[in-house]
Design goal:
Keywords: DNA-binding. The chain is of the alpha+beta class. The protein is built from 14 helices and 7 strands. A 5-stranded mixed β-sheet has the order 3-4-7-5-6. The chain has a two-stranded antiparallel ribbon with strand order 1-2. It starts with a strand and ends with a helix. Mean pLDDT is 89; it is low at 288-294.
């Protein structure tokens, strides 16, 4: 079984929830700051963070409420890619293609049956937790509703695997449609009428740029992913150097230089690419001010 992860951008989503609920826990907030939007968070850490929040303030449908606060920047490149698609149908296809950029906990399967678009997530990596499932499904639904601003993008039903933590009506109140529990896999059903709904932020040029970046990230090896995460985190504290980066990777500068050279890269080039990517993502994020970007 492969190591599983979620995007580090979800740490920002959890902090948004803590702020909204006025939950002050220095240790928890410190743990969240360790993950940037371009990093990967081990699934075990992600689930522990959710359980910690629930232990501080337990309530039914907490994961759904967290997901309702999600915005494109929490999903990095995939978020921006989807928001530039032309229709919801195209967005769903892109999501299926690139979901691995958000998490690799389970694969998404999409089929059309009985005038419904049925999205389901397998359990090849093992069943996820109810809290985690709630967050991801609520995030996805909130996201597609946000980019379409169309009332027709209201799912027919949402099915979870685990038992409800309380009355099902509490979950339906958050989402606004039927929610059920105890199924073989997590499944989301929508009407096929929603497929052709246009996306308000559609932009073919930006879609092409983001698709190229998504392809690069999807095929990127673990070494470059780790190095890019390290550089992204270090840029807030100054300009990273090859020597300091090698020290953090626990290898020699010579080894770092050689590994980059094997990939037809050098340190300055890869640092510049990382900075350009961050700048692009930040400039496309309406939630950030110019001061925060700089």
């Amino acid at each position: 079984m492969q190591d599983t992860y979620v995007t580090g951008g979800l740490a920002g989503l959890l902090q948004t929830y803590l702020d909204q609920q006025k939950i002050y826990d220095p240790g928890l907030s410190l743990a969240l700051t360790k993950f940037s939007a371009d990093s990967r968070m081990p699934t075990s850490v992600w689930r522990e963070l959710l359980e910690k929040i629930e232990s501080i303030q337990p309530q039914p449908a907490m994961g759904l409420k967290i997901g309702r606060l999600s915005r494109p920047h929490h999903f990095g490149v995939l978020g921006y890619l989807i928001m530039h698609c032309s229709t919801l149908g195209e967005a769903l296809a892109r999501f299926q293609q690139y979901q691995v950029l958000v998490h690799n906990v389970s694969k998404v399967h999409v089929q059309i049956k009985d005038a419904k678009v049925i999205m389901s997530w397998d359990t090849e990596q093992g069943a996820s937790t109810q809290l985690s499932d709630e967050v991801f499904l609520s995030c996805f639904i909130t996201f597609i509703q946000h980019i379409t601003q169309d009332q027709r993008v209201t799912p027919i039903a949402l099915h979870f695997m685990h038992p409800a933590q309380g009355e099902a009506s509490a979950y339906e109140k958050v989402m606004g449609f039927p929610v059920s529990f105890g199924h073989d896999r997590v499944t989301l059903e929508m009407s096929t009428d929603a497929i052709n709904i246009p996306i308000n932020t559609s932009d073919p040029h930006l879609l092409s740029l983001m698709a190229s970046k998504a392809d690069a990230l999807k095929g990127q090896d673990d070494f470059l992913t780790h190095l890019q995460q390290l550089l992204s985190d270090s840029l807030s504290q100054g300009v990273p150097t090859l020597e300091n980066s090698a020290r953090q990777l626990k290898i020699s500068p010579r080894t770092l230089h050689r590994r980059l050279q094997q990939r037809q890269l050098n340190f300055k080039q890869f640092l510049r690419q990382t900075r350009e990517l961050l700048a692009k993502l930040y400039l496309d994020d309406p939630a950030l001010s110019l001061n925060e970007i700089s």
